[in-house]
Design a protein that fits this description.
The structure is a single chain. The protein has 375 residues and is of the alpha/beta class. The protein has 14 helices and 11 strands. The chain is globular and about 55 Å long.
Amino acid sequence: MAFGWIDGQAESRRRAGLVRTLRPRAAGTPLLDLASNDYLGLTRHPEVVEGAARAARTWGGGSTGSRLVTGTTELHAELERELAGFCGFEAALVFSSGYAANLAAVTALAPHGSLVVSDAGNHASLIDGCRLARGTTQVAAHADPDAVRKALSGHDGPAVAVSDTVFSVDGDAAPLAGLAGACREHGAGLVLDDAHGLGVLGDGGRGAPHAAGLAGADDVVVTVTLSKSLGSQGGAVLGPSRVIDHLVNAARTFIFDTGLAPAAAGAALAALRLLRREPGRAARARVVARELHTRLTAAGLEAVRPDAAVVSVRAPSPEQAVRWAADCRAAGLSVGCFRPPSVPDGIPRLRLTARADLSGAEIERAVRVIGETRP
């Protein structure tokens, strides 16, 4: 029977407690949200919503084609200029998603004969980029510049190291200065996914590479998403102009994909301008993350110290993690639940988002619910 093997895989997932289901959410909900990636609380901000609506009224519901045909509007170009300027890079290129941006950056910068050194904790989009790249990939130990250095020392030819700046599971930060140093010793490029750093780290939320002094370097390329701190949708690659020009001509997820919808571009641009005007939002997100961690650990929970806005709490098993998240939801709190294969070390977790707009009372309520529902 066609696709008969699917039933066997479904049963294996059920036995392992790894079944995933969709849960459509209503427009309004009484749940306290610590599950989304809306780090700055901008998704429903009036200026961001109006930015989306104004763009849709001006440009229509869709971009109508690929970026190289009809999918590039003046709004896309404006967003790219302001995003590059804000983060400190020469140029930017907007994609339909952060996933597409990562696929583009890795595949286009790893031709035949090249080496890609990928951190063991990297996001699935970077891993998939490595799989699709024509170069050879070597996985390096997590957050270990010496492991990257060792991998690069055994290769003669073009090379690039690839890493998240803030890892999405535990929220720990990569040693960016050490990675850059290892790459520069061997003339390799460095590609950094700053999805969880933009809007949270750096001066006024300019990102982890900016904070590390790597913004604008001719050997550093950064990818970002517009769907987290900027409350919209889409992604972008930032870097030297010649790299961005290369992506326009070589990145398949740019050339053949329909351009980002104008409404998403308009929302992201409005959020970026709001963040520039209110830089304190970035610092507030970090304060909330530290407060969550302090209170959770004081309650006897095993929480990982956050380097940005992600706080993870370890669970005893995948089944108990699912039950814990469900019990939190029943008590009015929405939290993320990460299980294998989403977690590289196989340890299930509740994943909490520290939003800049959370009040002290909401933080206290979240910690109380998590503690009262613990397995």
